[in-house]
Design goal:
By secondary structure, this protein is an alpha/beta fold. It has 28 helices and 16 strands. The strands form 3 sheets. Strands 8-9-11-12-13-14-15-16 form an 8-stranded mixed β-barrel, surrounded by 4 helices. Helix 1 crosses helix 2.
Amino acid sequence: MSVRAGPIGPAYKSHGKGVTMTVALVRRDPLLATCLLLTGANGVWFTIGLFHPWSEPLVGWIVAIVVGLLSAGACWRVAATRGLAPAARRFWHGLGTAMTILTAGAVSNTADALAGPDAPSQLISGTTIMLYGSGVLLAGWCVVRVPAAGRTRGEWLRLGLDALTVMITAVVFTWQLSAHSSTDTRITLMAVTSLPFVVILALVKVAFAGSGPVNRGAMRLLGLSVATSGAIGALAPLLAPWPYLTNTHIGFPVGATLIAWAAARQRHSDTAGMVGPSRPGRLFGVVPYTAIAATEGLLLWTQRHEPEQATAVVHAAVALTAIVVIRQISALSEHTRLLGRLDTSIDELRRSQDRLAHNATHDHLTGLANRALLEQRIRQAVESGHPTGPCLALVDLDDFKDINDRLGHAVGDEVLTVVSQRLRACVRAQDTVARLGGDEFALLLTGASAGDVHLPDRLVAALREPIRAGEYDLLVTASIGVVSGDATAEPSELLRRADVAMYASKQAGKGRHTHYESEIDRRTADDAELGARLSTALDRDELYLVYQPIVTLPTGRIVGAEALVRWRHPTNGLVGPDRFIPVAERNGLIVPIGRWVLQEACRRAASWQRPGDKGPPLRISVNASARQLLEPGFADDVQTALEVNGLPPSCLTIEVTETAVFEGGRAVETLRLLHERGVRVALDDFGTGHSSLGLLRTCPVDVLKVDKSFVDGVNVEGERRVIVRVLSGLASGLSLQAVAEGVETADQAHRLFQFGYRYAQGYHFSKPLSPEQFAEAIAPPADAAGGTGSPRDSQEVAVA
């Protein structure tokens, strides 16, 4: 049988492999093998001695002393093992000392038995009893000092009572079996029998208490050693007919061998301690009751055969009965407590299950239903068969990300909580309000309330009031999509329709509501088809640029142009930018399209420069979307376009809308980087946003392009005229260039000039031109002598 080197390990964890484990352990430990061999031979010697008187019993005593010394050596060898826990090392060192003292007791017992006048005898002197008692007490103290945990007071009490039961039974049997011996002899026998039970109590404490530094299997072997020695000691009176034999001959070698076995188990184990809590097995639980039954049987036998000796047995039986009563009362009390705890645990488990069920179907922040519960409620509403069908409203807060980014998520959470409360107040108790995630909510109306046509207006009104969050009073708007009247649609389809209507509200300008119609789906499908076709438009050369001149006031002299992208669809003809640019923004095609526009505009602008021109260089303006500004490589794309086409950075103006840079972050950082490289920045449609003045402080700006909506009212007394005038003064005060957009009449041009505007663009001066038309417009006129005039002088428009 091959045995691998190193710890035996898992073999100790399987009771089914006990024989294999024992054989392997014996083969690996010669000291244990020697103890087993000597103890086995001594057992044969002892058995023969029961049938054949020995003239010289010294053999039995020598074997007991040798096995005791070997057992002590095994304990000390374990104590010297590397890596052993300090508590375990202390335990085995103390146990080795205890075995040495017990072996000294065996030597003294040998002298008692062989040196007296009546030798050989079973005499035990006071010195021997003192040595045995000291060794047993020291062993018990070592066990008590082993750290252990995992039992209640009631369990300790019952374990102690069980051990006491066994001890009383052993004592009463010893007393009864030695009935014909002298009183001193009987007391001595009871003392020898009772003493091991002091250690049994300590072993019970550790062997079944839980994790500890001493190997669990070793502790069980130690318990078996003490129990076996005590049991054999209780049989001492039965050996009275054989004075040359004593219970020490057999009990001491067996107990010492089991201790040596425990030491070997600890030394060759792959774990130094117990693993997890342990409980007494069924066998241990039966032992006390077996002891009681044995005592009752002894009582019956004594009363029948030796009634004069029954008094001690009766007292023992009464004591055992009292112990049983105490034990059962303790167990009943603890069981009652456990049942109470069990009831409490069950109630807590039910509450936990309720909480888990609630958390699985509700939003943790607002307490509203979540998407899963909403879909379940929609399905129930559809299956109810109500003729009107459910009504579903999808609510998405506008620009909520700005609140989180600027004021923090704590403020954002407060806003969501207040919004959820206001939405709840807009519907009845039987209706469902859900949070689908982020800043998106849904309201499901069923039954009679599903026909409430005023719901969207109530929602808008509820959100119109300022929300107090943290230290801020915030105005929150929402885009709302409503779908109703379909009693057959699946929950996912109703959610999709509401989502489509909600996005239609956002595209229409936010802060409004839209009812779902099939036309919206048709437009969505058209957009999808348009996006698919747009993805190949660049490769098919379907996109092209036109250029709207930017002129000076009052002369109308061309000083630049704004590049505008157009799409010539092969089947639909010209598609306006207001149609395909939003589609490109949504599907991300705006990035490659914008890169192409940038390259093409720079190429044309470079070709229009005239080295001999004494005027300022002609500038080209290119629009950039928010999506482009967020691209990490946008600034490098601009730099590449300038370098490849040889266009100076000062000749390029990047136009951005206020909403594109409102959130700051990467978009503004990109513009700052371009500005540092000499590229000019223009704010397009200035004045239409909600933070225009703040952007002038945070964003690098060179040009303000005043929106056409203000220019249209420049000739009429009113707020738009005032705004146009104020913006001119603002640009002048900040050393910015103001460009008026959408100028359509000479009166508008004249009034703008009076208000201080020196640059403008619009159909009054020129419609967007093709590259060839624009080149012709800026070409210098040839005089009769073939000379040339100043470039762009040929394109002038009167302002009055």
